[in-house]
Amino acid sequence: xxxxxxxxxxxxxxxxxxxxxxxxxxxxxxxxxxxxxxxxxxxxxxxxxxxxxxxxxxxxxxxxxxxxxxxxxxxxxxxxxxxxxxxxxxxxxxxxxxxxxxxxxxxxxxxxxxxxxxxxxxxxxxxxxxxxxxxxxxxxxxxxxxxxxxxxxxxxxxxxxxxxxxxxxxxxxxxxxxxxxxxxxxxxxxxxx
Length: 193
Description:
11% of the residues lie in helices and 37% in strands. The chain has helices spanning 2-5, 20-28, 42-45, 76-79; strands at 64-74, 93-100, 107-110, 121-130, 137-144, 152-160, 167-174, 180-192. The longest helix is centred in the N-terminal third of the chain and has 9 residues, at 20-28.
């Protein structure tokens, strides 16, 4: 993201392991129908009236506010064994939402933990004011809360904000390797104000 925001034409990705960096790269290249080509916004290709270039560190006024409502999640019981998350009880899921982009837009939110439920219902809404929505990505990660150990991974996706369409959507989640989980979905609503 840093190279892209500063106008780099080509960027080499280290794809030797799986993790957040690769998930973000997958999300960025979901733009334009997932063909692998993402055209830069005009302000990254043009110079200003005094020959200045875009500076991602400059704080700009808010252009749009993205409102994200996380209604519920389902499908884990179909894609995972009944003891995958907890040996003796249903999982305790929560969702983390991140905005990745220029530093002024970076944000992190988290739903409450829904205990002992394979189909958690959150019904929570979050606001993300965006100064440069053209460069923003929405990263979504579901985790299973574990009191005695590290929280378990339940799925993730990364979506370009410029590609989000207002309305209620069933958002598929992916595993750590970026493979789509067969049944797991989040029911979410996206709005721009």
